[in-house]
Design a protein that fits this description.
By secondary structure, the protein is an all-alpha fold. The protein is built from 7 helices and no strands. Helices cover 80% and strands 0% of the residues. Helix 1 packs antiparallel against helix 2, helix 2 runs parallel beside helix 6 and helix 4 runs antiparallel to helix 6. It is extended, with a radius of gyration of 21 Å.
Length: 167
């Protein structure tokens, strides 16, 4: 994110002050955004912070909630595996065809690798939380709000512990 911000700032500065455009900055920034999005999705999945509507799952019985969560996380696992699988095919195609990027003339497969690389982490994380949900006993099921409160309390305790170590 820092590299993307610096590149965009440098390009804007160059364009408006020096009247020169850094054409490569858009190419790099766009592809770094793809990588950032893929890795962010994997992190959000692990934290169970991905976008979703908990209004339905919070309104149903714990048993049905569990079924819906397992189905949703399982579907996300299959989808992210498909992104990985077709991402690998895309990279192979780019390599075989010798495609290069428009401005820097780099091999396209270098940036293309970001898709399967990120997707493998997404697949691992979604599979992990699917298995956690399957193994979770029904009497320990919690709503998304309860999980968020527990996570916030744990983060606050960790913060207080770090602050205590500094003193």
């Amino acid at each position: 994110l820092l590299a993307m911000t610096a590149l965009v700032f440098a390009n804007v500065f160059s364009r408006y002050v020096l009247h020169l455009s850094l054409s490569f900055s858009e190419e790099i920034t766009t592809n770094l955004f793809v990588l950032l999005s893929m890795m962010g999705t994997a992190i959000a999945a692990r934290r169970r912070a991905h976008l979703g509507l908990s209004i339905l799952t919070d309104a149903v019985s714990p048993k049905l909630r569990r079924i819906l969560l397992i189905f949703g996380f399982g579907l996300a696992t299959v989808f992210s595996f498909a992104v990985f699988f077709y991402g690998v095919k895309m990279v192979q195609s780019e390599y075989i065809l010798g495609q290069v990027t428009p401005s820097m003339q780099w091999p396209e497969w270098v940036y293309g690798c970001f898709v399967p690389f990120g997707a493998v982490f997404m697949t691992i994380r979604f599979a992990q939380i699917t298995l956690e949900e399957i193994r979770n006993p029904e009497d320990k099921l919690k709503t998304d709000a309860e999980l968020m409160i527990e996570e916030a309390a744990a983060e606050e305790a960790a913060y207080r512990a770090r602050e205590g170590e500094k003193k």
